[in-house]
Amino acid sequence: MIAVTRMRTPRAAELMRSAKEKAMTKPTHAPPITTQQHKEWYHGSPLRIDTLCAGSTVTPVPDLARAFSHKPTRLDITIREKDGERIVTIRHNGRQSGFLYRVQVGDPAQDLRPHPTSTCAPGEEVLATRDLPLEFISEVPLVGEYESRQPRKQKGGQRGYETV
Known about the structure:
alpha+beta, four-stranded antiparallel sheet, 3 helices, 16% helix
């Protein structure tokens, strides 16, 4: 029987430390999905529910909530500029229909907190701090991709968000 011993060089040890440090750092955030102020909050679920439980995910982006309603294990967000518009495409691998809800948030500073492991832009994926009432909006048939267009500027210099 032959025993093999691997010796680590100082460079190999340095690379391993660097890899461990990278794995322990916070995730980098994606660019914002929406350019509008966060005024309304949404939740997507495969279940019909009346109340959102504390710790559940909330988002100001309706298409993101729609994608979450399908319970995907993978979600890809692409943002591109074309002809003066910002085009956001959300793809997912969910396999079930769902439901879209408006979350009745009284005070976002009290009712919501940042999601600790989200890679979305700050404020675009947050957690409920307490049980919150829901308003049913619609059923969400299974669609593998959502696309929205955001004009760069609307009248009066306000930014907008339009679902296609």
